[in-house]
Design a protein that fits this description.
Elements lengths: L3 E8 L4 E11 L2 E8 L1 H5 L18 E3 L4 H4 L5 H11 L5 H6 L10 E5 L2 E3 L11 H11 L7 H10 L11 E5 L5 E6 L3 H19 L8 E3 L6 E5 L12 E3 H4 L10 H10 L4 H16 L11 E5 L2 E4 L25 H14 L4 H17 L5 H21 L17 H4 L12 H8 L1
Antiparallel strand pairs: 1-2, 1-5, 2-3, 3-4, 5-6, 7-8, 8-10, 9-10, 11-12, 12-13
Helix pairs in contact: 3-6, 5-6, 9-10, 9-15, 10-11, 10-12, 11-13
């Protein structure tokens, strides 16, 4: 990378220049600058790219880390691994950002240098290319394979660098011509994970949660889960995207609470229906023991002049009942603790207790009807169901656990939004939800 890189940022959904992103490197350290284009900043459909990029002034914003909105468009774990292996060194953040091929970049933001979109790409793979893609993915995972570097470079040339997560995945053109995400298994264990994710998405759709229509191809170590990308329209148009991590102004590894996310949805102008939809996802995650519910696995998409909750994605039932959730609910991150607080959280988010109990029953009825779950996960979910049912039963009899004001001191920060935060929300967590009512 050159010592200084200047990129125009364009919102393709609006067809507007958003501003200018500059990446500079001095003595090995990177520094980023972003300046809004004045026309975008004052436009009725203009919006803050994130809490770290408010449109409060036209002065440039500076950071020694890539701004959240651009982190969402850059590679995550799998893509970063490919880029690093193709270069055989640790890339700069700007190099990671430029490794993403323009047609596949997440969301509606595009990057332009001069007259060229970054980065250009040739033909996007099709479903028929999956055997070749899987073979290349396996090769990149073999550190002692002398061809691992060329395999990683080949996958990047085919436009796979934009994708996150720890396991191999690629963007492909589906049978209908729509851009899809293809998750590739390379082991029997990962194949089981994909099968259970497929089943979980079907359960979500069965109980009324907006979910993409998944397709499961192959079996054993050759299993592939194909999911349409929800940041693209059926005709290929781009849709604005922000992860919950960006929306809350957090970074990888930061702790988070669902009440903060609920409060931030209020602050972002999402309608009341999105509060109910978020609660349903929390309840589904608890019922299915979806412990990998970190902030990159929740998102919003741009609809008109506001953010809306995205379709659900990356729902992975965990057979290990002892594992805690990545995102807590009112500071609880065990299955029993979160289940006990579900109904009270539902009351704050527009879901009456009776309706909440009925929804959890619907989830388990759909689980019983879904044939794709593996025996190990099905057995674990039967045990989780007993634990959740017992917790919901106690929730109706026990004294409410501090709604509001159970916590004191620093323990209150996550759920109430009273502590230090980089999110612009002035009324996060429970406080924001109560003010909405």
């Amino acid at each position: 990378m050159a010592d200084r890189l200047v990129l125009e940022v364009v919102d393709d959904q609006l067809g507007m220049l958003v501003g200018e992103l500059t990446a500079a490197r001095t003595r090995g350290a990177e520094r980023f600058t972003f300046t809004y284009d004045r026309a975008f900043a004052v436009h009725p459909k203009g919006y803050d790219l994130g809490p770290d990029l408010p449109r409060t002034s036209f002065a440039p914003a500076f950071s020694d880390r890539l701004f959240g909105a651009f982190t969402d468009t850059a590679p995550d774990r799998w893509g970063r691994t490919l880029v690093a292996r193709s270069l055989e060194r640790t890339p700069t953040e700007a190099e990671y950002l430029l490794a993403v091929h323009d047609p596949l970049r997440q969301g509606a933001l595009r990057l332009r240098q001069g007259d060229e979109w970054q980065a250009p790409v040739g033909d996007i793979p099709r479903v028929s290319d999956l055997p070749t893609l899987r073979a290349l993915a396996k090769q990149t995972q073999q550190l002692d394979d002398p061809h691992a570097r060329s395999a990683a470079a080949h996958l990047l040339d085919m436009g796979t660098g934009s994708l996150g997560g720890a396991h191999p995945k690629v963007s492909v053109v589906g049978a209908t011509g729509r851009l899809c995400l293809a998750k590739l298994s390379t082991t029997a264990e990962h194949a089981a994970t994909l099968r259970n994710e497929y089943a979980a998405l079907r359960v979500a759709a069965a109980v009324g949660i907006v979910a993409p229509s998944p397709e499961l191809l192959g079996e054993g170590p050759n299993t592939t889960l194909i999911v349409p990308r929800f940041d693209r329209t059926a005709t290929g148009g781009r849709i604005g995207f922000a992860s919950a991590m960006t929306l809350l102004g957090r970074r990888d590894g930061d702790r988070a609470d669902y009440l903060d996310l609920a409060g931030q949805l209020v602050e972002a102008g999402a309608p009341a229906d999105d509060q109910r939809a978020l609660w349903q996802r929390i309840a589904l995650g608890v019922a299915l023991n979806n412990t990998d519910d970190h902030l990159r696995n929740h998102a919003v998409i741009r609809a008109g002049d506001r953010w809306r909750l995205s379709p659900i994605f990356d729902v992975n039932p965990n057979p290990d009942r002892a594992e805690r959730h990545a995102t807590s609910l009112d500071r609880e991150n065990t299955t029993a603790g979160m289940a006990k607080g579900l109904l009270e959280a539902g009351e704050l988010m527009g879901v009456p207790s009776r309706e909440g109990r009925a929804f959890v029953k619907q989830v388990y009825a759909a689980v019983a009807e879904e044939p794709a779950f593996t025996p190990r996960v099905r057995a674990a979910l039967n045990e989780v169901r007993q634990e959740v049912s017992a917790a919901l039963g106690r929730a109706g009899r026990d004294r409410p656990r501090g709604w509001p004001g159970r916590r004191q001191g620093s323990d209150a920060n996550i759920a109430t939004g009273d502590g230090p935060r980089s999110s612009p929300a002035r009324h996060g967590g429970r406080e924001g939800l109560q003010q909405r009512g």
